Amino acid sequence: MRQLRLAKDVIDRDWAEPGTDLDALAARAGYSRYHFVRAFKAAYGATPGRYLTHRRIDRAEDLLRTANLSVTEICHLVGFSSLGTFSSRFRTWTGMTPSEYRAKHVGRGAALIPGCYAMLWAGGFRTGPGAAADDGTGAGERNSGEAP
């Protein structure tokens, strides 16, 4: 059971990472892929993939209610790589599309958080392949119109 809790903790901590996959979670728990799915479902009532999707959709609901970000930005922030997959899973879980959900829930409570703050808080400004890393010299801050 301890190994399953560790794998669940990885999902709870790294739910937004696109690289969070079944093989990595099973390896973390020390199980084969198929035994891990069965054991996780027996312990938590859902498969690891379903549990991960639930965590991502819950976070997307929060962002749709509170952040001034596009549905596409939210899709990528919560760890989905495809807008179509995100929208269909969101609709399956909530009964509404992300846009319908936002229209229904925006305006209740506090004002929307500006998108730039939400992206910064959620770690949306990551350096990746092809992105210029900031090495402290300011070189990574040049726009495409400046000379090197």
Explain this structure:
It is a single chain. The chain has 148 residues and is mainly alpha-helical. The protein has eight helices and two strands; from the N terminus they run ααααβαααβα. Strands 1-2 form a two-stranded parallel ribbon. Helix 1 runs antiparallel to helix 2 and helix 2 packs across helix 3. The longest helix has 19 residues. It is elongated, with a radius of gyration of 18 Å. The N and C termini lie far apart (55 Å). The C terminus is likely disordered.
Largest sheet: 2 strands, parallel
Number of helices: 8
Q: What is the CA-atom radius of gyration, in angstroms?
A: 18 Å
* Quaternary structure state of the chains depicted: single chain
Helix-and-strand structural type = mainly alpha
Strand order of the main beta sheet, please? 1-2
Tell me the total number of β-strands.
2
Helicity, as a percent range = 55-70%
Mean pLDDT across residues: 78
